[in-house]
Amino acid sequence: MRTWYRTLDYLSIVAWAALVGIGLVAIYSTTHGPAAEFLLESVRGNYDRQMVWAGICLVGFCIALLIPVRVYQKSAPIVYLGAILLLLAALLFGREINGARSWIAFGPAQFQVSEFAKVGAVIGVAHLVGSRRPGTAGLRTALAIIGLLMLPAMLIVLQNDTGTALVFIGLIPVMLFWAGVPVDLLMLLLAPAVTGYLAIVYEPAAIAFVVLFTLFMYIRTRDRKLTALAAAITGGTLGAVAVALTKILQPHQVARVLSFTRPEAEEFRHDVGFHLVQSLAAIGSGGLAGKGFMQGTQTQGRYVPEQSTDFVFSVIGEEFGFLGSVLVLMLFLFLLVRLVMLGNQMKHPFAMMVAAGTSGVYLIHVFVNVGMATAILPVIGIPLPFISYGGSALLAHTALLAITLTLHMRRDDFSIYGY
């Protein structure tokens, strides 16, 4: 048996601490700079509240490391069910903030339950896969995983928080891949996302993708039914996007979807494209090394909306430049690679799936958030892990990392049978 402190992955903890520290620096800049006197009192308190949440996360991290793996395994179904009940409670009795009914108040504190649902969903899927014999993942397992992730996603959509719901949907191919589901099925699941994105950006490219993907599936499988299914899924997605943009969505909704393709266009830049225009201006003005801490003209001029939450990456880009932005991305890359390595070292499927789900959540958040800030993706309101202001998100993302590191640290405690 290996001593626990010798198997704890300290490098991941260092990366976590560095990202949290960078987030605190960015939030301090947005709330204590020259423009602070023009901010609401509640906004000026964001830094202090984030500091408190960081302390709570540190204590929770230490507690998580003391919990045996059996507790995580046996409590996983209860945690998943609790997350679903919290989502239902928020939908029925929760507070509405920024148009989303995703918050529940406990005394003076309020929590965004959709963030904690990520923890429940990850360990819920991990429990499902871990309770089955390795190598038995098939269609039933795939459908069960999809169901476990789609249930919270649908409840969050009903709460009017589509951005967070997309995280659960994006987790589906990640979890299916690590569960050992056939690659052909994974490609069929990913193809609609690629088709939909291309249909929004450039429709001829989407049409070309439908044709090439269908041809690729036929060459790969020589299965006419699977090829027909590939054509139906991608072609159906292309048609659905066209119908949605022209017949279903309201003009302001269409503008929100399309604004990222040309945020500087006259019909977008003074409305939904304003966020993107200002974010790009902030990042572009930072240059190589940035303008300096609390010296960003866009940041201190409050030109970038939601700059301590959804667009915090633009603050880093302006004040610390290209080098600061690359540092943040490299820290995330290091953490993601590290989690994948830890997952491979843990032979038990429950532990492997927790590591996979954690890395998947981080990857989706980083890709979407940075994509929003750089006008690669539409603005859908997803925070940057550990950096954006928000206690619920910080606690949930830290909990996922703490659980993964605990399972890796205590990997010798798992059953030798692997399920």
Describe the structure.
With 419 residues, the protein is mainly alpha-helical. It has one domain (4-181, 249-413). Helix content is 72%, strand content 3%. The protein contains 18 helices and 3 strands. The protein has a 3-stranded antiparallel sheet. Helix 5 runs parallel beside helix 7 (139-158) and helix 8 (162-179) runs antiparallel to helix 9 (183-201). The longest helix is centred in the last third of the chain and has 34 residues, at 312-345.
Précis, in short:
With 419 residues, the chain is mainly alpha-helical. It is built from 18 helices and three strands. It is globular.
**Oligomeric state of the chains?**
single chain
Helix content: over 70%
Please give the radius of gyration in angstroms: 22 Å
Class from secondary-structure proportions: mainly alpha
Q: Encode the helix/strand succession as letters.
A: HHHHHEEEHHHHHHHHHHHHH
Uncertain runs: none
Reported for the largest beta sheet, the result is: 3 strands, antiparallel
Distance between the termini: 20 Å
By DSSP, the count of extended strands is: 3
What general outline do the C-alpha atoms trace?
Answer: globular
| Beta-strand content estimate | under 5%
Please, how many domains? 1
- Tally the helices: what do you get? 18
Mean pLDDT: 87
Please state how the strands of the largest beta sheet are arranged side by side: 1-2-3
